[in-house]
Amino acid sequence: MDGTGKTVSEFPIIYYSVAQLWKIFGPHEFIFRLIVLLFFFTGLFALFKIFENTLKDSLLAILFPLFMFTSPTLVYYANNFLMDIPALSLAMIGLYFFFKFVQTSANKHLFWYAFFYALAGLLKISSLLSFMAVFGIFILELFQFKILPDKKIFQYPHKQIIAFVGVILVELIWYLYAHNYNAKHNSGIFLIGILPVWEIDAAQIQLTWDAIIEHVKWDYFRRETEVVFLLMFVAGFVFYKKSNRLILLLLTFLSIGFLTYVVLFFQPLKDHDYYTINLFILIPVVVLGFLWLLKTRFDKIFTSVIFKILIIAFLIHNVDFARRRIDDRYRAGGWQNRNYIENVQ
User: Fold this and answer.
1) What is the model's pLDDT at position 50?
2) Which stretches in the chain have pLDDT values below 50?
3) CA angle, residues 264, 79, 250, in degrees to nearest 5
4) Which of 286, 20, 248, 266 is nearest to 147 (CA)?
5) pLDDT value at position 280?
6) CA distances (Å), 8 to each of 37, 176, 182, in order?
7) Separation of alpha carbons 337 and 192, rounded Å
8) What is the CA radius of gyration of the chain?
9) CB contact at 8 A, 5 and 186
10) What backbone torsions phi and psi does residue 186 show, to the nearest 5 degrees?
11) Distance from C-alpha of 75 to C-alpha of 62, rounded to nearest angstrom
């Protein structure tokens, strides 16, 4: 360490913006929290529009994005300071513009998609999982793989590849700069690299795996909800001939990216639940694919009032679970706050 305090990780556009607001309104913590929360709510609204445009059912379009706000991990960090939530939110917005591009074939939507993913990746590179899934679909079409039955998604690939190359170049430039800057100053303060499973021994792998299971039980979603999501995921592949091919391909590439990420960043998953935040992009794609399957093949269930009442009841059940878990995180006597209470207050 050279004692200068100079170090860099994510692109500091949000930090800079907060600093400018603090110059005007004073250094109030709630300003930072509010900005991050507004990012997340905007991302949820983008999910709502994706669901509404795809399913043509406003009630379901409202209900299922709200399930994202019943994850204790997302609820907690949506009101905090890490850049993972803004990155995930920008990825959800980027995904909205991709679906708009698919529906309209208007290149402006593809370039808005690229713009929002470029910003997302500058904040957290892991937010590019869904960007790479779409890029995978682009590559498939280059090799004449038919995805939509009536048209090509990318009708002018030699021009439209600019959107993908542009995002990749932006990320390469920033992270090469960050790596070189940290090598010159305080290398090691922020991670610019990976923490893979193969760098730890079997005992550490077991400890980390046990911790991951505890996170799955208590931090990501209610266990029953995770089972429902898993069944939705399986249903998409079991009924693959009847599923939406585009969504199924997105889900396939996202799943590969999910597993790759877990392998490459296995070590911090033991203690740091926020490392999983950008993996949550998988959930709306799973749900969207399942609901599309219901709408097109099992319409009586999809339009059933009883089905929607059950979803609302299940959502309320999940909201209560998230409320209790967040209470635990903020409880004065809890382990999460013990160090602060003993050493700061």
Assistant:
1) 97
2) 1
3) 45
4) 248
5) 97
6) 23, 11, 7
7) 28
8) 21
9) yes
10) -105, 65
11) 17
Do the Cβ atoms of 92 and 51 come closer than 8 Å? no
For the record, the structure tokens of 64 come out as: 């299922």
**Residues constituting the chain:** 345
The DSSP string of 169-230 is HHHHHHHHHHHHHHHHTTTTSS--S---GGGS-HHHHHHHHHHHHHHIIIIIS-HHHHHHHH
Q: Which residue has the tokens 């990420």?
A: 261
Q: Which tokens in the block code for residue 256?
A: 């590969």
Helix (H, G, I), strand (E, B) or coil at 21: helix
Query: Which pTM does this prediction carry?
Result: 0.94
162-202 pLDDT per residue, tens? 999 999 999 999 999 988 887 787 655 556 678 899 999 99
Pinpoint the alpha helices (H) of the chain: 13-25, 29-55, 58-68, 72-77, 84-104, 107-123, 129-142, 157-184, 202-215, 223-238, 245-264, 282-297, 299-302, 305-330, 335-343
- Single-letter residue type at 68: M
Q: Which residue has the tokens 């490392």?
A: 275
Judge contact between 91 and 281, C-beta under 8 A: yes
Alpha-carbon torsion (242, 318, 77, 183), positive or negative: negative
For 324, the token pair is 């209790």
Tell me if 68 sits within 8 A of 74, measured CB to CB: yes
